Records
---
Amino acid sequence: MNLLELGWIFLTDPLNLSLSLGSILMALLVLWWSRNSGLSVAKRVFLIYAHIAFLIVPVALFAYASGCALPASDCTVKTALYAMPFILAGVITTAGVLGYFVMPRLYRRRMGARALRGPLARFVAQQADKHGLRAPSLHVIDSAVPQAFSFSSFKPAIFISAGMLDILSANEVKAVLLHELGHLAHRSSLLKFSATLAHAVSPVAKFASMHHALDREECEADRFATTIQGTHRHLESARRKVEGFLAFSE
Ligand SMILES: [Zn+2]
């Protein structure tokens, strides 16, 4: 049986057809939604992961259905039940690998990020070295909204917006960069990433407990920054300024 015939068999099954079309529709919907620049960075990243996951569903379904169409395979309800967790795991893993390693690169391009050199980059490199961390690259994103975030995949990277650099003093910027370095030290971007991915797979997946874990990660990152600076002052004033900006712009 060739691929075309397998495809025909797959698509003439109403369940396969409706699931695939529904999934593709959802993928397009979340992609369109993720382009809304009014959303927070976290929401946009989440929507992009969701997009990837929705796109993989029809492929996984087709692979499974085609497996059943092969003469040698025994496609009973039992094997279908056994196969489901593996298919799901496959979908999650593929979305995960794609998301975790491709996202930072995609993000750099989408957000029009450029590498930041000079004293701030040297500061980050020095602090990373001092704490036995791989020095992350530092990028400025072209956005007036004050925001900062980090990724710790193959190449750790910290992103800070032009808006953030505009409203903060030098010490406050350093506090923010140290907070992000704290995240890289605790690899919390992996946790954030997992939470995001879980949300993509199941919108109700232990929502509360994940938020709890993320709160703890924020505290750890704060502690990393305030211990190095020897004061809470800069981090707190940075947070006040950002909150002030967001309150004003809403
Ligand atoms: Zn944080």
---
Amino acid sequence: MAASSSSDPVESHYASRSLVDTVLAAVDAAGLPPGLLKASDLAPLDQFHVRGLQATKELAALAGIDSGSRVLDVGSGVGGPARHLAEWFGCEVVGIDLTEEYCRVAEALTVRAGLADKVTFKAANALALPFKNGSFDVVWTQHVAMNIKDRPRLYGEMHRVLKPGGWLALYDAMAIDGKEPIYPVPWARDPSTSFLVTADALRAVLNKTGFAIRTWRDVSEESRQWFAAQKPPAQPPKLGLHLLMGADFRIMAGNFGRNVAEGRVGLLMAVAEKN
Ligand SMILES: C[S@@+](CC[C@H](N)C(=O)[O-])C[C@H]1O[C@@H](n2cnc3c(N)ncnc32)[C@H](O)[C@@H]1O
């Protein structure tokens, strides 16, 4: 891949070249119906987290979203979860992501899905959310915090932009006390951009920020089973995360599975209410 023009090592990790044409060509080559794309059509490419669309559906069932909700997806990637929420609930979703190129891909796919009136994207850092206090009913985030060291500021920003009584729905990889992940993993090539915390540390920072925990679900075991059931295809699939991350995504995903199987990394879904 060509070198990225971004100076942010996290952004360079996720996109080191332009991706919109590549992704749209792959969507066409996959022979998807010419009409409006559904969340399930794009899921192999746009649900960038363990257990894909199934995990998004599970978190959505916990998150208290309805058609009147205004949802912020922090670290929205190429927009699969945001489109799924709009498609299922008919709600408005705003996605922000550090990686500008992912926002461009997200916008292009959202037009193809016919959801551009409900779902919008903006390049921004989760540590400085470009929204007024109390702008959202739900803040949603999946597999993003692992790249973010300053957790008090991250959850402080999420708390600030939520309305009083609003909900934070999160799905993240967790550190396990005393265990080191094997690298590279999908979120980092080495420890310099990986900032996992333990579930206990996460609970403490959420409480300190002013959240009351409503749901706390360790989903490590179902994640382990999902990884174990993955059969690496002989050829890369027509749609897949390798289109974003390059051919060695396979190695990164394999290491993530190994980390979960060996108890080096856990997975957690949680919902917390703004006090
Ligand atoms: C593994 S992907 C997950 C994408 C999406 N949440 C999903 O589940 O499909 C991680 C995303 O987090 C974004 N990210 C990492 N650090 C960020 C930050 N400080 N602010 C905003 N986005 C960030 C990356 O650019 C990337 O798109």
